[in-house]
Amino acid sequence: MAAATKKSKLEKSIVIFIMVVGGILVSIPFIWMISSSFKPESEVLAIPPTIIPDNPTIENYIQLFTNMNFAVYLRNTLIIVLFSFLGLLFNAMAGYGFAKYDFRGREKIFYIVLATMMIPGQVTMIPVYLLLNYMGLTNTMTGIVLPGLAVAFSIFLFRQFMTTIPDDLIEAARLDGAGEFYIFFRLVVPIAKPIFAVQGILTFIAGWNSFLWPLIIANDESLYTLSVGLSLLQGQYANNFALQMAGAAFMVVPIIIIFAFFQKYIVEGFTMSGLK
Amino acid sequence: MKQFKNRHPYMFIGPAVLLLSLFSLIPIAIAFVISFTNMDLKGLADWSSITFIGFENYKDLFSDSTFIKSIYNTLFYVVIGVPLVIICSLSIALLLNYGTSWIFNTFRAVYYMPSITNIIAVAVIWGYLYNTEYGLFNFLLSFLSVENVPWLEEPTIAKISLILLAVWKGIGINMIIFLAALQGIPKSYYEAAEIDGASRLQVLFNVTLPLLRYATFFVTVTTLIGWMQFFEEPFVMTDGGPLDGTISIALFIYKEGFQFSQFGYAAAGSFILFAMIIVVTVIQFKFRKSDTEY
């Protein structure tokens, strides 16, 4: 702010104070989760509660993998994340196609793509289930992964970014005899690295958090994701809060670590994409 | 050569557009058709048992007390939740925009964190915080001699508890959008205001907020659409209870569709939700003042 000259020291201290207090309030659920996840079952129900566990234990985390199938859930979740990156490539290709080619129906198809963003998930979830059932893909990993591969919002962001790549650059590569896909992978993808970084993080987070669709499609526990497993855990061990908190921490902490490393890109990406 | 070149754009957009059509566009048509049928689990195995029943599902919905309740609850969520999210995220964005030192960057991450974390994990954690006997919230409130609050056990309080959680989770993404917009406001506006001798509050209300009109509009539209589809919080924490006190339209559709296998009935419900979302969005666009150019 240009009004910086007016800022007094006192005012700045007040702002920082409010910000810190608010920040602590916002963090309480996380702090409580971490703290409780290291408590033995008896201590987690103790009144008054302890902030730092008296008898810290990692028993809860071990139990996730021995009594619950968290290793299987983790594997499934990672498979979903992996495939969602294939989807990311499709979205990037589509974004490039819409940004850099002139073809019949371009505007119309693009508007249709944008229109799909308006459709609430609840409307499509039943027919998509019926479709997959018809194709024999319910209770399969393919059925879990397939519907989420293409994301209109992601196509939109890629297109926005790729329109800013100079045409001359692509034209020059064409004159040098490079094929269209060679141009895309060797020229366009490296230039678009920042937007790939943002989308990559968001894709990872979305894949890691996937819940509703696996819940609907998977009947076998062997296909459950971490989210589904965690909601299952909550039902089965309703009063073992320490175990529940360990499960939650196992889901939340990786995301927080990734986010801590990449948060700069996410924020910049939003500014960059012209979403303001 | 020309023929060869023309094929490429379609090869680039092909996979994504095909997937979107298959899993987004065609389903809309299917949902529309089955909403006029009595399709259920039997119909899934044997299509000949499906019959067209016209507007029967839609008529039934409006005499279904659970559905009416889910509409009421959803409106409750929207009316209280949306303004709360917008006010909180805007206030925090203004706070964070005040300075540029490391402490502001750190707290930007802190405020953003809830919005990226897994909703199921979050719901599990908050379920524990809200626990009437062992929860942290009631323990802290006991210092203020507040009696045990039945956070999730009384219909109205349960709705408010879910809103609290959803606001906490919803702040991050909107705050980032406001922050991006704040940083996009040209400095010259503030310099001009300063020369005119405007006070800090005058600057806020006469310069900053009007220039945030577009961001506010964007945030309002997306937040409203999101809240109309409120689902995971009631699903994990209360399963719609107590006494259907927290059931939302989205949860109603899920339950009808996947717990009771009433596909036709649920599809009709989903179209009513869709219609509501479209109506609300159109109204907002009508009310929107002309774009701010700066």
Automatic annotation (TrEMBL), chain A:
Membrane association type: Multi-pass membrane protein
GO cellular component, one term: plasma membrane
Keywords assigned: Cell membrane, Membrane, Transmembrane, Transmembrane helix, Transport
Domain spans labelled ABC transmembrane type-1: 73-262
One Pfam family matching this protein: BPD_transp_1
Residue stretches spanning the membrane: 14-34, 78-98, 110-132, 144-162, 183-206, 241-262
Compartment(s) where it occurs, according to its Swiss-Prot or TrEMBL record: Cell membrane
SUPFAM superfamilies in alphabetical order: MetI-like
Protein's GO biological process: transmembrane transport
Keyword Ribonucleoprotein set for record: no
InterPro entries: MetI-like (IPR000515), MetI-like_sf (IPR035906)
Keyword Cell membrane part of the UniProt annotation: yes
Coiled coil stretches, renumbered: none
PANTHER family: ABC TRANSPORTER PERMEASE PROTEIN MG189-RELATED, ABC TRANSPORTER PERMEASE PROTEIN MG189-RELATED-RELATED
Family: Belongs to the binding-protein-dependent transport system permease family.
Name listed for the protein in its UniProt record: Sugar ABC transporter permease
Organism from which the protein derives: Halobacillus mangrovi
Organismal lineage: Bacteria, Bacillati, Bacillota, Bacilli, Bacillales
Automatic annotation (TrEMBL), chain B:
Residue ranges of coiled coil: none
Superkingdom of this protein's organism: Bacteria
Pfam families the UniProt entry points to: BPD_transp_1 (PF00528)
Gene3D superfamilies in the record: MetI-like
Ranges of residues in domain ABC transmembrane type-1: 71-284
GO biological process, one term: transmembrane transport
Family the entry assigns: Belongs to the binding-protein-dependent transport system permease family.
Record PANTHER family: ABC TRANSPORTER PERMEASE PROTEIN, INNER MEMBRANE ABC TRANSPORTER PERMEASE PROTEIN YCJO
Record-given protein name: Sugar ABC transporter permease
Organism: Halobacillus mangrovi
